[in-house]
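Recall the central idea of this unit: under ordinary conditions, the amino acid sequence of a chain determines the structure it adopts. In this exercise we apply that idea directly, starting from the sequence alone.
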Amino acid sequence: MSKLSHIIILVLCFFLIFNSCQKHQLEISGWSPELVSPIVNATITIADLIPERGTTEYDKNNLIHLAFRSDSIYVLPSSLIQDITGLNIDTVITLEALVVSAQSDPAVAALINASGIQVPFPASQEIPGVVFNFLNADILDPFNFQFDEFSDATFNSGQLEISITNNLPVAIETVEIKLIPAEGIEWEVDINQLDSGEEFTHSIDLSGLVIESSNNITLIIETLQIENVGADMVELTPQTGFDVFFNINNVGFDNITLPLGGDTVDVDLALFEDFDSGLILEDPQFTLNVNNPFSLSGSINGDLFAFSQEGVEESLTVDLDIQPNNLSSITYFREQIGDIIALPPQLLAYEAHASLSFNATDIIGSESLMLGVDIDFPLSVNAANLSLKDTVVFEGINYDLAQINRMLLHYNLINGFPLGTEFNLVLHDSLNPGINLDTLEFVDINNNFSNVINPADVDEFGEVIAPVTSSGVLTLSELEIDNLLNTNKLIIDVTLSSSGFQNKDQYVKIYSHHECLFKVGLETEININ
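Accordingly, the structure predicted from this sequence is:
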């Protein structure tokens, strides 16, 4: 018991001595202990920043691609080609339309008014037949018959059949017609004694005909002599006039140009929205495919236009040979499409035509010739500036600003991204979605206080072999402290940049599983008085 009593006395003496030594410090006003607490402990992957959706795809190794495939961005149905090989143009030239047009001549207008012709034509009206004596070639303008199916053609066979039906109430005694299908080409047709209701037919051999930059036939009436019925009354109806019919049949083409038109390519380019201009990819591929079920051959020529968000334009000239009864394709690589990718593109559009060679017998069945596209842009990048964002839920800090002497943010960043990385912490108020309270920029104290965090180490093939750890500290101003205390959501603003590459010719591959560990701790010095 005596030994135990001595031990107790010694312990009591120790505490008395210790307390007497610390008494002066306890009485110092404004004691400021430092509190350290973690506020961000996040693992951010490329998949978080670039999700797989739309045309953004991950391959089996998780390499990110912009990928788009369509077999039918343009469809040329067999019916359209068959319409060309059996082209029909049927046009009614009415006397009523001629009368309306002729009234622009004051002398003719006076004559029409004197004849008592009612315009517009009623269902039926009678006029003196002598009026037709004034219907001649002088008052008839040339007629144009439009066809949109082609604009240039070299025929190796075919017949153009022309039929003219006289729907006048009097006979046509003579008429001389000139047909012009293209500049420098004229056909003459003479008609004698075509009674009312009769049809005249004439055939023209198209073999060897070459039409350039034309998609219409001009009909000019050189001379016209109408039967003189004197003062006899004749009946007019809205259908009174001429019926002109053109039919092309049994044709063959050494070459014919079909307009494929122009339109936007319906491609979701959202993956490029976060890239700045100057993007360089290692192995982009843009492939055009033509599925041709017919025995025709030829080529597709045109231009692909790309536009950036700022309206800057780049283009690619397309020239694809078409093989009969086969699938034809051509692929363009970085050398041809690099300028388009560097924009980067927001919108793609095309303007094209097809130059084909075929005979009517080559177009069999109901299938269609289809133009398709296959776009594959794997994200193996050389020059890239990519701005991305992720959101971290933040509960906020319950401190009285008046108690805070200073506040520092410490961070550690284990960067597994193969690009130089800028991290900014955006202080956001979710109750006011349009307002960011502040932006805190992190710098790397191991890299001359640069705001670009070093990328992960990569091998010669652009594969990450080891992450790089960086750390830093940020001393907050009074305003930044106030904004941090008032935020309830932290947005991690990430910019990936190739500026950290040591080798300017190095390409790196971006995989969805690449990750960065981002830890932020808050060191706070608080005045407890």
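The mean pLDDT is 82.
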